[in-house]
Amino acid sequence: MTHVEQESTPQTPPAVADPAPLGLAALALTTFLLSVKNAAWTDGTDAWLGYALAYGGLVQLLAGMWEFRNRNVFWSTAFSSYGGFWIGLGLYVLLVAKGATPTQEANDLGWILLAFAIFNTYMMLWATQVNQAVLAVFVTLEATEIILFIGNFATSESTIKVGGYIGILTAICAWYASAAGIINGMMGRTLLGVGKPLFQQITPGGRPEPR
Fold first, then answer.
1. What is the pLDDT along the chain (211 residues), one digit of tens a residue?
2. What is the CA radius of gyration of the chain?
3. Spatial separation of the C-alpha atoms in residues 209 and 205, rounded to whole Å
4. Residue 53: left if φ>0, alpha if ψ -120 to 50, beta else—which one?
């Protein structure tokens, strides 16, 4: 009897959907809800809080994990970090802020926002290598965080309102980038422009890392 040995051939991993539009949408909506509160546009309660935990937090964290599968270090770091930001901020409000004075809470939020502004600074610099729509998200997010931590340290409601206005602009930029990712990906061509990366490409091979 002849035994025929079959060689096992490596299989190409199945293509996966791009999680970046989901992560950007989660960032946009949660940022918008908190920003309209900071801007004093709403007379409601903390509607942003549940979405900080579920959408901006959990869903964005999942998008970051899926970006690891795509070998995309930029988006895996960005989405995972900001998913953690929203979860951490929500837990702070639920577990810590209730026992703090308004001055203590403002000081805590100032330090939290300062820390993430530092993180966002180098992410903003490397967003220049993605595209201009994504860069707009990180530039407006940087401005939001800086103005908000100044406003919280100074306990200045007017400064926090300005941070809220810029946060709304951040949400609009993130929604646009998300919509562009969905529409352009589905159509297989560019319908919503996102702009080219700025400066000369400095990622390996002279091209941005694959998406």
1. 444 444 444 555 556 789 999 999 999 999 999 999 999 999 989 999 999 999 999 999 999 999 999 999 999 999 999 999 999 999 999 999 999 999 999 999 999 999 999 999 999 999 999 999 999 999 999 999 999 999 999 999 999 999 999 999 999 999 999 999 999 999 989 899 999 998 766 656 544 444 4
2. 20
3. 9
4. alpha
The 8-class DSSP code of residue 206 comes to G
Is this model's pTM higher than 0.85 or not? yes
**Cβ(109)–Cβ(156) below 8 Å:** no
Task: DSSP for 42-99, please give it.
Answer: --S--THHHHHHIIIIIIHHHHHHHHHHTT-HHHHHHHHHHHHHHHHHHHHHHHTGGG
Q: Are residues 43 and 14 in contact, defined by beta-carbon separation less than 8 angstroms?
A: no
Q: Using CA atoms, how far apart are residues 90 and 97, in angstroms rounded to an integer?
A: 10
